[in-house]
Structures are given as C-alpha cells and as structure tokens.
Amino acid sequence: MENIREIPSHSTRLAQSHFRTLRLPSPFQPRIEALARTEDWYDWAGYKAPNSLWDSELEYFAIRSQAALFDISPMVKYRIEGPDAEACLNRITLRDVAKLKPGRVHYTAWCDDEGHVLDDGTLFRLGEQNFRLCCQERHLPWLLDSACGFDVRIEEETEAIAGLALQGPTSFAVLREAGFAGVEHLKVFDLADFLHQNGTVTICRTGFTGDLGYELFVETKLALSLWDRLWQAGEHRGLRAIGYQALNRARIEAGLIVANADFSTAGHALRADRVRMPDEIGLGFMVDAEKGHFNGRTAIIKARQNKTMHHVLVGLEIEGNIPAEHAIVYHRKKREVGLVSAAIWSPMAKRNIAIAGLSRPFGDTITDDLWVEIYAMRELKYERLMKRAKIVPRPFIKLDRRAANPPADF
Amino acid sequence: MFLGAYGERLAGASVAEQVAWKELRAQLVRYAGILKPMLSRRPPDLGGMSLAETSALGLTALSLKRLGKEDMRDFLRMLLMNVADVLDEQLEDDRLKGLLAFDAVLSSHLGPRSPTSLLGLYYRLTGELAGAPGAQIVPRGGMGQIAAAIASSAAKAGVIMRSNAIVNKIRIENGRATGIVLENAEEIPCGLIVSAIDPSTTFLDLVGPRELDTGFVRKVKNIRNQGNAAKLHLALDRPPEFLGVRAEDHRGRLVIAPSADHVERAFNPAKYGEFSTEPVMEITLPSLSDPSLAPDGACVLSAIIQYAPYRLKQGWDAGKPKFLKIIMDLLERYAPGIGARVRHAELLTPADIEARYRMPGGHWHHGELQADQMLMSRPVSGWSGYDTPVDGLFLCGAGSHPGGGISGAPGLNAARRILAARS
C-alpha cells in the first residue's frame, strides 16, 4: 500500500541547473557560434538558440532544396522505462501506445483531468519497455505523479541527450555519405541505432518540416563529433546550419502546430477560456476512446457528447501575398470569429497560408464568407487590408520525397 | 464538571465562572446553529447550483443576518480563531478551559493555540441528540450496538448484508464501476457501489490510480490523513477509582486535561514527530452503565489519548511500549491502583489503526477535519458531492462532508444524493 504513495527516489532527475546560466549553451554551441553571422539568438527552454544564422530566407531554402541542420537539443526529453512503461504512457497520452511497435515513433499529446491539452510531442519506442518522450514544456512532476501505481522509471534527460534535425531532399544522401549503413531502410516514423565512435546514435525518420528528413539523438559527449561527421559528409550536398525562423516557415507549410504559439497549454493558460481540448486544436484524431482509461478521457467524451467544444483549428488560404500573422478573422467582414496564430507567404505552395483558431460554429459548420484583417506596416503607416480567407486542408504542401522509399540519393 | 448536554449545567466552579460559561455556551450553540444546516446537506457546488441549493445557502446567510450586527460580527471574528484565545477572553477557570480546549482539538493535529482550532468545538456542538446540542451518549451494549441496530433495521427492509467480506478491488469497465472482488476472489457484480471506506483506500487501492486521472490521484494523495490520537483499551479486574470523582460520575466522560496550556504543551512534541510525555485523554468506562460488557465485577476502560503522531520519529514499534508506560503512569496518578487491576491492555496507535481499518495514516476521521478539508474540499475539491470520477461509485464515509464522528450525516447526504441522481 505504501509504495504507490511514495515517488520512487531514483526517478527524480530534474534538469535543475538551468537557472544558473542566463541562457544555457547547447552541446553544439561551439559549431553554431562559429557559423552565426547574424548573432540573432532567442531563448528556447532556457537555451541560447539561433533565430537565424546567416539569412533566414536562404536557410529556409536549404531545407527545401538542399539539407539543413537544426539543433533540437533544447527540446525537453524524458526517458520512460520499465515493465509498465507502455501502460503508464497509455494512461498519460491520448493515442494507443500498444499500437506503437518498438523502433517506431508517433506524434501524440496529453491532457489534464479536464481534458485540456498540456502539451504535444513525439513518443519514441526505443524498446519493448523503453520510451523517449520529446516535447516543448517541462512535465516531470506531472509524469511522476502519473506513474503512481505503475512499475516504471521516469527520468528527465534533456541535458544528457543532444539532438539534431537533418532535413531536406539531400538529407538521406548526407547520412549515407557519413557512413550510416542501413539508414536507407528507415521508413517514415521508423527509428534505429547506429554506431558512432564508441557509442550509438539513434536516428529516426521524423521531422518538423514536411520534407524528407531525420532526427538524430546522441549522448552529449558525442555531440560535436557527430556534428563534424555530418558536416563533412554534407560538404558537397549543400548542407547548411539553420535557425528557428527557417524551420518555422517549413513547419507552417507542413501545417504543424507549436505549443504556446498556436494554442495555449493548460499549464500556462491563466485565463479560463484559453485552454483547449484536443478536438479544438486539430488533435481529436489522437483520442483513442477504446484503449482504456487515460487522463482527460471522461471530460473529452463528455464534451463530445454535449457538444461543448467551443473552438476549432483550421488552415486558411488568404488572397494576396501579405502574411496575415496574428490577424483577426471575421465572418462577413463584421463578426469577429477567431485569430491567426501563424502565417507566411509559402514559397513552396505559392500561396498565402495561415493557421487560425476559430470559435465554433465558424470553421466547423459555417465556413464561407471568412475574412482576415491584415495591418501591413508601410513606412510608418499601417495599410489595413481586408482579405478573403478560405478554409483549406493541412498540410499546405505535400512532398512525395518525404515518404519515398528508398529515399532519394544525390 | 459538565452536566447535561455539553455542560448545560456546570458544577465545581465559582458562581461567576458558571455565569460566564452559560453565556459562552449559549453563544457557541447559537453560532454552531448557523453552521449546522451546512452539515446536513451536501456541500455547495459552486460550479452549478440548483435553485434549491442556492436558496438553502441564502437561508444560511439570512440566519447569519438575523443574529444582529454585533453577534454577526462576533461570529465572523471567531470563526477561524484558536480556541485558547476565545476561552481566555471569556473564562477564568483553567480546568474548564482545559476541558473545552481538549474537546476542540480532539482527533486533530492542532493545539488549542493553533489557528482555526475553535472549529472543532463548533463541530461538536452541531451534533445533537433528541434536540439537545452537543449531547452524546454511549449506547447500551457499546458502540457496536449502533452497527447492530443499523444491520437489523436494514435486514427488516430486506437488505442482505455480508460481514467479514473484505473487498480487495472495485472493478471498472469503461469508466464505470461494475462490481467488487473480495479477498477470497469472489466477484460480486454491482449496479451501484457506495463506499464508506477511507477515500484514499477506495481510490488508490480498490479502484487503483490507473483508472483515475492524474490530477484527481494527486488530490487524493494530498489528503492530510495522518492521525494524531491513540486508542487505549483496558480490561480491569475491578472498576478504577479516579481521585475526586464521585462513584456515579464514573459513568460519564472523564477528561484529563488540567488546562488549555497543558493541552498545548501535550501538542508541542507532536509537531516534531514525538508523542506527548504528558498526554491528554478522554476516558469512558462503558461497563459501568452496561454490565453485559464485562463479567461480574470486572470493568472495561476505553480512552482516546493525544498526542500520538502517525509519523513517530522513533517508529511505533519502538515507541509504543514507551508510550503505553507513560499513559499507565499517568492513569496511576489519577486513579491509584489501576495498574495492578489491568488484566489486559491494548494500545492502538495510528499505525495500528491504519493496518487494522485500512485507513492510511490511521486518522479516525479519514482525514483531518480542519478548515481546508471541510465542505467542498472534503474529501477533495471538485468531488465533494459524494459522487466520484468513476460512474456508479459513491462515497459515504467519514472522509466525505461533513466528516467523522458517529453522526450518520455523510451516509444520509450520500443516500439523498444517490436517490436524487436516480430520479
């Protein structure tokens, strides 16, 4: 009876030193600093991370026409291990973890008791009883409290594991050239371990760009040698290091959402009406009502039955070519029905695209006659534009090379 | 000495003190009366109250208003005060103050000078017997007779009751309680399950955290349920003779709490994980009123001893014999010769109570009965209405509003709630 009330002491390794440095350096910092010409930094979960490195526009095109290296080490990472790891994660997250086979990755989300989304992230099944959860926000207390009654060990490994996203059409060629034999067998959402020096690197065919791409995870001490190995292999394949702005463009084209940018997480929202259920931010597909109990299940099912979901997240195509970032969405140019959370002119789609949160029934049953009000600053004067918006499916672009097997070589 | 229902008359004190007590008692009973309706109903559900519930809450506000300006101000002033300050304001006699202070903190992890300790006294006075506030009795045949009376009246109503059937698990299917599994692996399918078992045990052990949301489990785990009282049972050759107590008064409730300061001093060690070296206690000798409890001439003694913190620093295995010796030495001082008459002694520490009654923490109220765990916060916020996150599972025990003591109120409220949900 006692053991389920006590948090096992061995499962509490917090990333506790983050406050000692204003912005922590990533394990790749020496390489990134050397490439940073714009000196344009931002704070990513306490880390000093580049917004851009030399030119965000060209960095974006490195993703789409060459290969781009983006440091994802600041991403919050948890290791979940033990005989009950699958059951425990099934209770915490929305999707059915039993369907996630070892060597596979899935995109999932998790909620509080009220069914409001705490975060979304990727779950890597490294082995039968061994998982890695990657996300934006920190959740260790929540995860540990959720482990009550399960034979499972949960540890934060944000600082111990370095991560790189290698994205773009030549990304496979870079890996092959770097000597990762067998990486051609990885299909989308597959992962496998590869030798690197005296250790291993976990490579998975995932990414945040909607393009062909991989993510690599390695012990911090092997980080720089991994970077160098890729950099060398990428020399003739257009490999470039990139910052967040370039990645953000790619992810908007891919129609992917970012926690606390496109929706407010339940742990951060201060105002009662800012929290969102999965169905309200386009994550309703994750909810597996058949798999048994999970956090928020009762609340989500009840809200579905009572039709009390007030919001919906949609993709918009907007006339013209002025990005509608944070523009208000109107119905019939009069009634305010939502807000654009992310918008760009898409170089790939050649369309003006946006992700927006709308209040139902707008975006749900009423989808016509939508407008966005764009304020474009032109030489110290706002040009106010009322542009027609059309709801379109996400992703805004679909690239065959993303899922092509075998991946294209160059 | 108190006579009648909670000191309707006071003996052994000065005339001035008797007058002062009479006034204070009237005031306390008046204020407890305002709180009383709150106890007989389910706690207000601030999220969605029906018209009837809102108007009931309004009536409480009205009764507050009806007190008049002065009295209302005093009611609000005193509500969360410590009992020692209230007593010092109005009384002189240390013995009387000791008794009242003891009653106010009985069963809780509070000393008389801890904030909100007056609530315990109000809680006692909201109970009533045949219309007499604060009155208490020991039924003929002992407290077990209450259970027997409930059993026989239930049997008359056609209820099948099973005792010695220990429940090991509550079965959940698709978020709904569908049955229970006994210790002997027997399964009983149920349409409705009402649990009077401690809320922590009900949810963490019987339902299991896997079937519940993390936030709810967190709340249940955070219920403050560490007991601070021990129970002593003595089988004596002959009835004891307490010094200065008339023979017939041995039938009443004997409280050893010489002053409010004494109670406070008894509490001090408990703050640091140690038991009282000068404990305070409430003693009853039930066999004097009901000889059937003990064979001819013998006597049983039952006492509640404070303070005996659940998390004893030295551990109860080591501490229990020492604590028993302290208690027996104390009893010897008040009733010389009692030690030689003991045929059998049993001391139940919170650790024993936890193990025997499946109450984690060994708190006989299934959780501290303090301001932060009362009303809509009992057993946990958001789930104070006797229903639970599990469909078909209700709570009806001391862990639910209004709390412990043998009042039947949580059960009554739960039954009303279940019937209302059905119709």
Keyword list:
heterodimer; A: 410 residues; alpha+beta; Gyrase A, domain 2; Elongation Factor Tu (Ef-tu), domain 3; six-stranded mixed sheet; six-stranded antiparallel barrel; 19 strands; 18% helix; B: 423 residues; FAD/NAD(P)-binding domain; Guanine Nucleotide Dissociation Inhibitor, domain 2; 3 domains; five-stranded antiparallel sheet; three-stranded antiparallel sheet; 14 helices; 14 strands; 15% strand; globular; transferase (chain A); TrmE/GcvT-like (chain A); Aminomethyl transferase family protein (chain A)
What does this entry look like structurally?
The complex is a heterodimer of chains A (410) and B (423). Among the domains of chain A are: 18-75 and 159-253, Gyrase A, domain 2 (2-Layer Sandwich), CATH 3.30.1360; 278-392, Elongation Factor Tu (Ef-tu), domain 3 (Beta Barrel), CATH 2.40.30.110. Chain A has 9 helices and 19 strands. Chain A has helices spanning 29-35, 56-65, 85-92, 140-146, 171-177, 223-233, 244-253, 297-306, 400-403; strands spanning 40-44, 47-52, 67-71, 76-81, 104-111, 117-127, 130-135, 153-156, 161-167, 191-196, 199-204, 213-219, 239-241, 311-318, 328-331, 335-346, 351-359, 370-377, 382-392. In chain A, the strands form 4 sheets. Chain A has a 6-stranded mixed β-sheet with strand order 10-11-12-9-3-13. Chain A has a 6-stranded antiparallel barrel with strand order 14-17-16-15-18-19. In chain A, a hairpin with a 4-residue loop joins strand 18 and strand 19. In chain A, helix 2 packs across helix 7. The longest helix of chain A has 11 residues, at 223-233. Chain B is of the alpha+beta class and 423 residues long. Chain B has 3 domains: 2-133, no CATH class; 144-224 and 363-422, FAD/NAD(P)-binding domain (3-Layer(bba) Sandwich); 229-357, Guanine Nucleotide Dissociation Inhibitor, domain 2, CATH 3.30.519. In chain B, a hairpin with a 2-residue loop joins strand 5 and strand 6. In chain B, helix 1 (15-40) runs antiparallel to helix 2, helix 1 (15-40) crosses helix 6 (118-126) and helix 4 (83-90) runs antiparallel to helix 5 (94-105). Chain B is globular and about 65 Å long. The interface between A and B is medium-sized, with 20 and 19 residues. Chain A: Residues 313-397 form the Aminomethyltransferase C-terminal domain. Chain A: It comes from Allomesorhizobium camelthorni. Chain A: GO terms for molecular function: transferase activity.
